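Hi R.,

As promised, here are both runs. First protein below:
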Amino acid sequence: MHIRLMRLAIAICMILVMALPSMAAKTDYPEVVFILDASGSMWGRAGGVPKIDIAKKVMAKAVPGLPKEVRVGLVAYGHRRKGDCKDVEILVKPGSQDRDGLLAKVKKLSPKGKTPLAASVMQTAEMLKSKENETTIILVSDGIETCHDDPCNSIKKLKESGIKFILHVVGFDVDQKGKKQLECLAQAGAGEYFTASDADSLLAALNKVKVEVARKVEKAKSKKVKAKSRLGKLKISMPKDSSKTLAGVRIVRAKDNKKIKETQKAEGTHPLLAGKYKVLLLYANTNYKVADQVSIGEYEVVGGETTEINLGALAINIAEPLGKVVTGVELMDQDAEKRYLLHFDDKNGYYMFRNRPLPNGTYSLGFQLGRNEKPSTLYRDIKIEPGKTTVQTVDSGIQLKKAPSADVQAWKLTKAGSDEELFTIARRWDNDWPIWLAMPAPPGTYDLWVKTKGMEDFLPVGEGIEINKGETLSFDTGL
């Protein structure tokens, strides 16, 4: 009896172990499959280095750089036999978590044979038929198809068959004929074509694809799943002290634009019914003026789950006395190519240079100087990252030495040797403000122009003026 019980227990354990894979939670994260060219031409050199060595070096950087949630696969062609169009090998099946093993396979590749592009993609796609999520295939090739008459049409038919994949193609040191064919493959696979000529450009191409994959990972994290409850949560967080520039947050239901909630406390968790919502940050203004409303996007709240909005922040560290002339701060969203926020206040500068919470992205910073009609963009490519405060230091500028007798009406600063204007400063009708104030200007080389009373045009009074970081240049016009 005792032996029978033991046998029964062992059998139950075996059944449970065999059932584990099917019981495991399915992941919705994207997968990436690399198809590497290991044909004989990869022994050719780019910049004096064998292309296969460059590819191995770049893969050693690109693969570990993928988001940790992404599973990978590896296919290579032309590495086992010469003259064999069937020389395509699945080295690592799609869905693998063994990145070290994948890179070990890459290191062992030794170019030998032909370039069966269509066959390599077709064999890869064959393994993706059962996958519900779209797989990103990255094909790296240094030449054209040598085995198939019409590879583009073959890829097009694969897409039309319903297999979920997107094909990006990197042309590594290819001629115009090769570029044209590889572009066709990428287009047929609904992906992008990238040109690479050395290690840096090859890595840059793979990094661009990595950014796309990372977006898919973030989307998968917030993907709607079957909810146990209709009530979910929206959690808004931002770096310390940045919330002081907010008058609050407004949450609007997307389907009918109905305001669901508005509160002065933007940070924290907001319980909401499952659905899509627009979130607006309300940036505070002084002297009881209405807050500036800026939409930061549309978010889906899922029942029983928490959707997180993790903002970054911008701190403007401006040196004295460069801030005295600033009457407005403009932030431009470089990615969307549009204005994000304009804070104008010529009477009370309480919020002017305080830390502001911002969504993740790249921004330009401009200042409205004096009574100018529009801000002047002074700083570009400011990166804002979730949970971090980015500091933009403004510690350089220029100031004209005061010369009231010259009756200066306006002056402007342009990039040296060009008509590209940084800003123009004009006096008020009743006094000379702000002609003699210090003006913020990024480090660089500039030309200075002045207009005096009665003049129609600006006259150059300074050429090749150097403004260095950390200094406010005092300039004597000689007038």
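And here is the second one, sequence first, then its structure tokens:
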Amino acid sequence: MNHPVWDIPLLGSGWIIGLISIVHVSIAHLVVGAGLWLPLLEGRAQRAGDLELQAWLRSRAKALLWLSSIFGAATGVGIWVAIGLVNPTATQHLIRAFVMGWAIEWLVFVGEMATLIVLVRAYDRLRPRQRLAVYWLYALCAWLSLVVINGIITFMLSPGKGWVASHAMWDGFFNATYLPSLLLRTCVALVLGGLWALAAGATARPALRPRILKPTALFTLAGVLLAVASGWYYFQSFPPAARELVLGNLKGATSLARGFRWALWGLGAFLVPGLLVLWAYFASASFRRPLALVGLFLACWGFGGFEWIREVARKPFVIRDVMYSNGIRVEQVADYQKEGFLPRNAWARTFAASKGDTELARGEALLRSQCLACHTRDGYRGLKALTASNSEGDNEAFVQALRELDPALNPYLDRMPPFAGTEQEAAELGKYLSSLKGK
């Protein structure tokens, strides 16, 4: 924990990751779903000898190449930049723990791009069966990319006792939430890819439109129905503490609880595309592109709600039971509370020294290092507003209480990391919190 802290006023650094990630995961899952849809429709077109439909599918392959190679790749790089700035310690840990997994994912992505390029550039030189084989190879590569990334994402929620004991990559990769999450994400991919295809098919000429919309509507509807079932299965696989945190927030009256309800409504809106795809199936002549785009927007909103709940379910950890959201490892807390955080953190110590090494300077260094991963000073989860009614003594007592590692004495342990510092450092952080009133 010796990295600089990226301080984003008002919005907070976590939102930077969230905004980029929602765009990226929506594109990534859409591409996976569209990759599975393409060979299914290509096979159907080949069996029927439908050359017009085959030519139209070729244009969809070209659109996916642009979508994957530009928007998907750019937002993927954006996530790496964002997580490296916001939580470099956790990023470093994930790279070391899954270096082989990341390498496999990059190779699979290269295969995904290569097969798409072959389809677009060598389409006329491929025989029908060869084209279908390449379509399926592309679908496999796209889905395998999800298979690999899913293991790393689910590790952060449920690394499991096997990994804690062995630190072996595969013990962490195939964790308790791995299979349920993979099923859910695959189903979500079917929905997003299907809605994207419906939006494109709605602009085809009238004679071709039913041949696109009807099978695509069934494909998408299957994804919607399976996503509901697999979503419940996934939630049941959560670690008990994570399940209780989610349910507790849904029942609460805090702003976080209201956020959970918005996310839950978003997941409810995920069912609206089910009605739209029925329209596409039974009344394809009247189905229009804006309807599919509305469904796609709602599905992405619902997926964003799922991702938000999944992120919050890890609280107060970035890697459950391994590393807190501020980048401090669980086993480091006791040492920091005994020996002090600032003497053992080069960046925080240097920051405090640059401001005169006063009590307030040390308090600010502690706040930056231990609080700004989830809070801002005066914005999202703003500490100024949260402590506005507190006296200096109240703030100091609150931070001292956060040092407790017993849940009976520290009721915030299920959602906030314990304060990793000495009693003197807790007092310095409390004084700095009180100083925010005058800023």
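A quick note on the second one: The mean pLDDT is 89. Let me know what you think.

Best,
J.
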